[in-house]
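## Example record

The block below lists the input lines for one assembly entry, exactly as stored, with component labels intact.
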Amino acid sequence: MQTGWDERELIDRAGRGDSYAFEVLMSAHEHKMYAVALRMCGNREDAQDCLQEAMIRVYRALSGFKGQSSFSTWVYRITMNSCLDEIRRRKSRASTSLDAMLENGFAPSDNGDTPEQSALRTEQRRLLERAIAQLPEDMRAAIVLRDIQGCSYDEIARTLNANVGTIKSRISRGREKLRAVLSEQGELFGRRPV
Amino acid sequence: MTDTDLKDRIFDVGTQNDPNIMQHNNTEKNVTDMNMNDVREQMTDEEVFDGAFMEQDALLDELLKEIAQQDARVIAPLEVQAAWRKAIRAEAAAQNEQSKKIIRLNRWMRSAGSIAAALVVLVAGTYGVRMGENAPVSAGDTTNTVGVYSQNAQEENYNQTGYGEREVGMDVRPGGYAVLSSTYLRSDGSTEQKIDLTKPADGQTENAPNAQQTVSESNLNEEESIKGKVTSDTGDALMQIEPVVLRSAERTIHSLEYERDMQWLGDLVSEYDAYYEEKSEIAADEQNGRVSSMTIRVPSEHLDDFLTEMDQLGTTVMTREKAEDVTGRYMDKQSRLKALQLQKDKLSEMMKSAQNVQELIAIDAQMTDVVAEMERMEGDLRRWQSQQSYSTVSVTLREVFEQPLTSEASMGERMKAGFAESVVWLGDFSRDALVVLVSMLPRLVVWVPLAVLAGIVIWAIARKKKQ
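Predicted structure tokens for the full assembly:
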């Protein structure tokens, strides 16, 4: 952590109700939590609500954190659960536009392509992000955690409270759906094999 | 790369429909390195099919990686950061408030518990004292009762430790105002007698084993009622101390033959060498008969005989008897009087050897103060001696024309009498409760610090465990 504080000490202090220690502790995780929430919810308002809810859940549960998993894994699990609860509660599937996500903090990478290549890449990414946002929430959660956040299958299984086989199945089916979306856009992603 | 990561990666590759992981990796490398159109022209249809899949898988991988990189650069907007921080502070404040409420509730519960316990002790103690008088009294009971009724530590020590065992003719609480007995005329014409402290009803004490310090009414003779012996265990010298007990009695009598009863009372006063300290009479009016109010001083040694005979007059509707042991205060004043006498002697010596007028004036002023204080104390001592020698009997003789209350009394009269009786009971109970409460104060000086200390220790241990 960049604060110079020991994470364990911060966890202990925050667990005893020190809100300042909690803010210091979570400042190292808030951006990633927000990114997960934004990817899951697809809009800033819902992401903000999910982040806030997740923070409060973490704050309330911190005194019971035993350190059996890493703190970051525990935090992202709570974040993902908050997002899933929010999505289920609103019973609305997020529709994400890249423009909205750009406004909400996403910044496209600049990999040095030519303007034409860059425009094509941006359009491809926009379509893929839209495809991800349209996945069922359990698949989306697995894809986001695995392919975007880089979590292990064990961590995803613990986070989503499912066994590893189920998670692998969700990821496999999610990728299949993404591939189908890509194939439908032949002009952007090449011809679909017959 | 760990085994788990390797397995995860193998699965990831497997989900991309590549039958051979190595082949997939090689193809992926080729896709990224070569011109795709050139490759397609050199492939068979099957190879083109597989290659198209591989191309899409590679592109999907690349795009997902780009999205992951993009997400890794996400910065939560400032208003989002501010929002969750504000929510956390509000949550912390709410938790603090909740904790304070819980603490306040706990404090209130503890206070309520303490008050309830104190009330239970007070009520039980008061009831114990009031109700226990009708039961056979043992020596142990008497000791306990004395403890409850003691009103100052000095006098308690006088009885329990300072001066040792005492043997008295009647059980008088040291330093205590004590009601010996009260009799009330009930609404149905019967009487209710309350024998307080150690003057038991119906001579029960005679049957009580080891009742050395308590005597029945029949045992209450002149000498035993006043004189006592206090032995000191403070040294080899045995100090004899006469208890100073001030007794008084009160009667309210309804008389159908007022003139005759007044005459009889006058004869009694003469017979027992008593005298009227105060006497007044209210004349009769249309509705009420005459009322005489008298304060009679009766030689203490004759008090019980006097009361026995006086109770033959008319109908006694209220009796009250008191005994106040002022031995401790009496001795204290005596000691202080001796000290003042020594001081006076010393001042007299100093006055003789005064060098100038100023010294003489200063010594004289001190002497004046000392003499005044001595006279005040001597007055108190004389008053107590007088009260000890002559008990005070307050009599109210009321002329009536019929029995005050009979069983034929109307329902309203009975209700009124019952209500009045309850009020009297409440007053008696309150007074007794106050006596018990005040009596316990010296003990609380010891108990309260001990309880606080124990509480602090328990709290510290609990806090240490919690930490």
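The longest strand of chain B covers residues 245-255. Chain B touches chain A at residues 4-5, 8, 11-12, 15-16, 36, 48-49, 52-53, 55-57, 59-60, 63-64, 66-77, 80-81, 83-85, 87-89, 91-92, 95-96, 99 (CB under 8 Å).
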